[in-house]
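Lecture notes, continued. The same structure-token format from the folding unit now serves as the input rather than the output. Read the line below as a description of shape only.
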């Protein structure tokens, strides 16, 4: 593992498929010599504690820095959060960055927000039947990034930022955050591989791991390649 994060293996929508997570980690180590792994929820299929615990244990035992956010289906949120907390106490390489941030090797900062992000003045917030957050909450949770300007940034979003290349459903709030903070790479949820530039940032939807899809992204060079297990 390098002293700085360069090569990242990323996937979305694991949906409780522990075997595919094992295969992804094997590819990350042996095929790609990756420096980090990124997962964009949904981590579970049914929101059960055993699914979260299994996925996180496999991630932790791999001893590769791993960064992740929940998806809209990772609810109720309290169950997800409890299992993430338990796993991160045991495995130091695990980093949940839902509404938060964590540091990777070197001056690389990972930050993000999972679930569905909805724009508008008064969108409904939900954490029981699904994860749904107003755009202003993401802005508030990540305002600390203004104090961390010296770090190269990588964002993880369950919802893609608004961009014509990702079709309808993207968040304008997230697009503005990307333009404000200029991360090198933005990882976003989605079933299929997509890669578009937004300002000076590369936005990548790595594809659903539950369908055997993932991506390899070079942070410094802002390059992304689609792969299948």
């Amino acid at each position: 593992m390098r002293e700085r994060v360069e090569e990242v293996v990323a996937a979305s929508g694991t949906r409780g498929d522990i075997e595919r997570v094992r295969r992804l980690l094997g590819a990350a180590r042996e095929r790609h010599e990756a420096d980090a792994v990124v997962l964009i929820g949904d981590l579970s299929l049914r929101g059960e504690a055993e699914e979260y615990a299994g996925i996180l244990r496999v991630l932790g035992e791999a001893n590769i820095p791993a960064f992740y956010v929940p998806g809209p289906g990772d609810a109720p949120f309290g169950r997800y959060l409890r299992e993430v907390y338990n796993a991160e106490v045991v495995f130091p390489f695990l980093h949940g960055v839902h509404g938060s941030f964590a540091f990777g090797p070197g001056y690389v900062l990972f930050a993000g927000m999972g679930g569905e992000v909805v724009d508008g003045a008064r969108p409904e917030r939900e954490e029981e039947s699904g994860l749904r957050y107003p755009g202003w909450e993401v802005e508030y949770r990540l305002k600390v990034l203004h104090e961390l300007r010296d770090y190269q940034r990588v964002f993880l979003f369950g919802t893609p930022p608004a961009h014509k290349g990702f079709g309808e459903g993207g968040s304008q709030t997230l697009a503005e955050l990307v333009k404000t903070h200029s991360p090198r790479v933005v990882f976003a949820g989605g079933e299929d591989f997509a890669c578009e530039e937004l300002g000076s940032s590369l936005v990548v939807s790595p594809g659903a791991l539950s369908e055997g899809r993932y991506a390899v992204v070079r942070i410094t060079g802002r390059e992304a390649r689609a792969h299948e297990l």
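Point for the exam: Residues 99 and 138 are 7 Å apart (CA to CA).
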